[in-house]
Structures are given as C-alpha cells and as structure tokens.
Structures
1.
Amino acid sequence: MTVQKSIEFNEDVIKLNVLEDSGNYLIHRDILRQQISQKQGTVSTKTRSEVRGGGKKPWQQKGTGRARAGSSRSPLWRGGGVIFGPKPRMTVLKLNKKERKLAVQTLLYNKRKNILVSAKLEELGKELEFTDNKTKKFYSFCKKELNIDLNKTKLLLVSESSGSASKTFWLATRNLKNVEVISSANLNTLSLLKAERILITPIALNNIKEIYCD
C-alpha cells in the first residue's frame, strides 16, 4: 500500500469478515468483558466468626424474660456480622481471540467515516521530538490541518506499536482531556467506541490489518 498524505478509510481498506449483526453482538460482549475486568472486586464484609468479641454469652439462657442470645456478634445485633455479605472475588468474562479481533474489526468498519489515515502524523511525530511546545503544536495541527476542535471532539490517536512515536504523542497530548493515544497493538473496542474521530498513522494501519484483519 502506497503511503499518501491522506488515505480514506473505506471498505477497500478493511473488509468485514462477519455478519454485521453478529459483529455488533461481539462488540457488546467485548466491551462488557473490558468493563468487568476493570472491577477491583475488593469489597468485603465480616461474618459473625470474623467480628471481634462476642465470646461471652450476653445473659443467661432462661429467667430474664428476654429472647435467648448466645453472642453479641450475631447478625441480629448492631455491630455483629453480616449475613451473605460481599467477599473479595474476581469476575472474568471469557471471549475468544477470534471474537475479540472480529469485534475490533466490526467497530472499525462501523466508524470508517470518522477515521482518517494521514502520513502527516508521522512527520508531526518527528517534529514533536525536538519541540518544546508539543501540546500547542499538536493542538494547532488538529485545528488547521484536520479541522478538528479538540475542545469539542473526542479524539483517538492510533500510533505504531514499536518505536518512540507513542511516547512522543502521549507527551504532547497528556494535558488534553479529549485526546487518547493508543498503540495499534493495544487497540480495543472501548477506546474506539468512545472516540468521535480516529486518527491513524499509515504504519499503524498496516499493523492493524496484520493483527485484526487477517
């Protein structure tokens, strides 16, 4: 594929290898998998055997007129244990590698009209390595060259997997709240879904086609 200044991301660049309805279902499953994996699962409560104290019988079994009680750490008492409370656990939703690839592929296909592949990004990345005002330069580049207002548009920048390009772009955009930088190897459905516009370098495009579209 010849590298041009701008490549239109259409059906010729990426071909959908699954039915669109099936692909949308896989997108839903993959996003659910990512959201579940982000849960810490550290919430915990104590049972009556784990709460401190309660070794002494509060009062005698009979003769007081009150209900019988064997421990002050009973779940019926204030400060006692919790019945069927949450415990630390790890929840995993399994999704096959082929399904994850098809989910990314379908989302790229659905968002093809909002994707721009530009060789100018690679030139910009080389310039940013030797520039002090990286954020200002990147902001003006998006505003003038691509007609993208980063104050109103959520942008996803996909760079090549290897090299210092990802770090350079990350340093230039870390103060911009609407910009996310990700390498082609770490591309995921959640980042793609949140983005309104997607910028991809030609090298990153080749990596995406090798990883997700073959």
2.
Amino acid sequence: MAFMASILVGCGGGGDKEKAAEGDKGKVIKMRLAQSKADNHPVSQGYVKFAELVKEKTNGEIEIQVFNNAVLGSDRECIEGAQKGTLELAGSSTPNMASFTNKFLAWDLPYIFADKEEVYKVVDGEPGQAVAKDLEERGFKVIFFPDYGYRQFVNNAKEVKVPADIVGLKVRTTNSPIEIADYKAFGANPTPIAWGETFTALQQGTVQGEGNSYSLLWDSKHNEVLKYATEINYNYSSDICVMNKKLFDSLSPEHQKAIMEAGQEAMQWQRELANKRDAECKEEFIKYGIKVYEPTAEEMKLWKDAAKVVWDEFVVPGQADPEYVDSILATLGKTREDIFK
C-alpha cells in the first residue's frame, strides 16, 4: 500500500474519517485511470470526461490522469492493479470481470438484452446495484458503467449469414466463459486472447474472427484486417470503471460525493456519444469495403435457437445465478420464453 501513503498526503496514515477529510482538503491528490481501448473510442472519451468532471467538482484537488491503449496493461492487469492498490482506478469490459462476480455471467447471456433501453434499466436499477455490492466485497468501488455496445461477429475468411457458416472458424473471445460457450454453440472454435493482442492474431491468422462493437473495431483499426461483418447482436458488453475500495473509503465525504457525481454525469454524456459513434462506425465499415450482412428475422431465429444451450448450461447455481437472472428479467418485464420465441 505504498501508493496510498504517497497519494493521500496529510490523511494521517489510517486515522478516522474526520482526519482524512481534513487531510485531503486543499491537497492535490493525483490518481491514474488505466484501460485498454483506443484514445478515440467512446469509452475512452467517457473516462477523459470523468477526469475533467472530477477536477472541476473538487476545485482541482483531485487530478486523474487517463491511460488508454493498454499502455499500463490489459483489462485484466489494470483491474487486478486497482484491486491490489498498485493502481488507483481501472476500466474494463464487463466480460473480463466475470471472475470477480458471477453476476456478470448473467449480463453476458446471449440475447438477454433486446436493446439499449433494456440495458440501461438493468445497469441503473437493482441488478446493477447488486453487482456493485459484490465488487465492494472484492476490493473495488464501482464508479460508473460506460456504454460499450453490442458485439457483432466479424471475420476475414468468408461471409457469414447463419450459424452453419461459422462452423470451424477460429474466433477470438474475451475470458468470459459465456462468450466462449456462445461460439461453441454457434459451431466456431473460440480462442480467448487479450484485446491488445487481437489485431496481430487476426493479421497472422491465429484467429479468423472476433465479436465486437463497430466503434471499438473501427477506432482500433481492425477494419484493416477484416473483410466481413454479421450483425447478430449476440452479446451486449458494458464497460466498468472501478476504484480501489480502500482508497475511496479514505477520501473525504466531499471528495467521494464529487467522484460519484462525476461518474454519473460522465456516464450520461458517454452513452449519447457511444450510440452516435457506433452508428457512424458501421457506415465507416461499409465505406471502407467491409461487407456488412444484416440477417433476416428467420436467420436471427437460427442464431437465437443455437444460443439456447448456453442458457441451459449457465443459468444454474454457481454460474449465472437463476435468481439473479430472474431479477434482470423481472426488471425488464419479460421472460426467457419471450427472448427465444
């Protein structure tokens, strides 16, 4: 915890909350926020906006330096740094957080969210609060959930319209066991690879495809190693911004309030940007020459039918907790049958 002593100058080295509040007033507290996405990605811009708002709301008493492009490590490395306290804040896509709480497995279930309106109901509602509570027990303070977007299937081997077309393709996935299961169900050969290594893996033929949002793919120049996109919306991924819990607890109530308010304001700002940017990047894909295929209703039914086995496998105690899945569906006012009808 050496970094705590250097950052929280004047906080009394573990004194009570009142002393901490007196100690960090008027001091410039420097923090780092690290994550893996490109500088111009909406998630990255949301983190920069957050840092600006924190500085403004604390009258310059807290300064957050944002590190994008995986310069301080992969999602996993940054998140573990925030948990251990060697890094103050970190961002990650939620599938890479599944090992910290299995509630993210429920978020990863294929086709659980029909649209962004449903996503926001869950993230902003009781299911999102339950995730934050779990993560507090593991050393994190959840600050906010930037909008990452729906994952589409993209590849450089052939046009894919239905699951039968994907059989045998090597596909990069996150570490989410559900995303791995998704691609097994579709008939592909899933291969978990860190995001920062994916471009090279596609370039060298280690994998032939991946699942990701249009904006992340375009902003990371993956269009240069891709030829085809299939818009199947099989998985929505949120991003998450967390702070080391001990560090957060050591701050004054005023600074804690400022950080949380900045997170909520940055999240609303970033959501608008993310939705606009994803639509723009889809058009950029098309202009670049990527062949984008939008399945018919009948073809989408085939993708959903293929994914049913993932629900059967994971919506069980110890995996995607059935009660938590039910709480998500109740929040959305629908049933599992409604998803696959």
3.
Amino acid sequence: MLSKFTTLCMLLIASSFVHAQQKKTPERIIALAPHIVENLYSIGAGERIVGTVEHADYPIAAKEIPRIGGFHGLQFEKLLALNPDLVIAWKSGNKETDIEKLKALGIPVVYSVAKDIKQVPKELLKLGKLTGLESQAKKQADKFNEDYNSIVARYKNKAPLDVFYQLWPSPLMTINGKTWIHQTLAICGVRNVFADATTEYPQISLENVIAKHPQVIVIPNERAAEEPQKVNWQLWPEVPAVKHQQYIEVNADLLHRFSTRMLTGVKDMCGKLHASRTYYGKRQ
C-alpha cells in the first residue's frame, strides 16, 4: 500500500504535468464542433487537429480528420488513442458529462462559448492566443468585423418585411428572438414573425404560420440522414408568401455555424430578402 506521502507526491507530479500541458502551445488538438474546426483552419491551425466530430466537413481537408463522436457523445477509446494535448469543446453542443470525464482524465479542455454572431471575432482571437497564431487570428477577426459592419450598414433602415424562418419542416419548427439565427434576420432588416415565441426553437403548427401572415418563407437546406417530409405550402394561398411565391433557400452550413463563413451566408440571405422587399415595394 502506498504511503500518504508517496500518494501526495504522485498527485503533485500529475498536477504539474497537466499544468505544463496547459502552458505549452498545443500541437494535437481535438475540436468538438464543426465551427471550431473551420475557425482553426481559418487562422492556420487546421493541421494541428487530430480528431473531431460528425459533420465537420469544411474545408475539404477537414473530411480526412478522424471522427471521435458527435452530438450523442464521444468515443473515449478513440479520443485517448489520438493523444491530444488540448480539447476545444462547444459549451452549447457537447455533453457536460463527457467534458467532465475529459477533465478527470487530465486532458486540458477549453470552451467555445459563442452565442452571438458578434462574438465570432472574440472566438478567433481566443483560438489565436491558444495556438500562438495571434496575428493570423487578428487578421481574420478584423475582416469579420469589417464585413459585418458593411452588411449592417447596407440594410439599415430598409423597409420592414415579415419573415417566417422554417428551421425544420417535420415537425414544423422555427426560431425566436433569442437565437443567433434571429440575429442574422435582424441584420437583413426584416422581422421574424415568431420573435416573441417563449422557447428558442419552438415546434409550431401550420395554423400558427397562417395567422402570422409572413411575406417571405426562408427555407434552410439542412442536411439530414433521412429527407424530412416537406411542407406543401401551395395548399395555403392565404399566406402572402405563398400567394406571391416568395420563398428563398439559404445555406444552413453557413448560417447555422459560428464560423468565419457565417457572413457569406448572411450576405446571401440578405440579398435574397432584399429582392423580396423590392418585389413588394413595386406592388405598392
């Protein structure tokens, strides 16, 4: 049996090892969300990623990174075999029990905590500091801020437009005013007809949508293992968007990730919404 002194020494040594791991620049990173992978690549740290989760598919090189789990949990044997010196987790997207287990194993963990589109530059700067790539990160953060401000200025004070964001068709779901997707709609200068919903991602009925009279229906092309049943909006011509055929499709991979590419999706959506705004303006 180990003496109390020996046990204490071992604990101190282990603690010092973990502390040293946290201090050195990480070279073997596991990124537990697609947006974390994208942001690491954008600052030049992509080659350091040794493991990631399902759906991390951008850039093309990311598809070759070994998978160690996904939304439903992590595969710890695969993860440990990759010998990471840092795990970057998503505060809102990873199981807390998995993260606590990683910490208990002595693996350094830091969080991506973005909940607001304007936090993306802060995320980039944080990753830059972690990886020793501050200058590259600052360049990307400055560009994001510049592009963001440009889009906001372009659509500020434009004529309002009532929009329904069809997050998912079956069951029918949307977004309220506390979500980052709502923020992207606000940038485009339009009104989210379900902004006042009590939950962030409410399940709604067709009758709920009809009662809101949206002028445009936004449909993200979300990927899924099985194609969901689509809504046949043509059955509901009393909805202004249906009557005037004002549907727009947007890229979910761009809009639904806190990455540097998010503004590409926002710019595309804003342009399409503005075309609908122009259409209604000409009818007045």
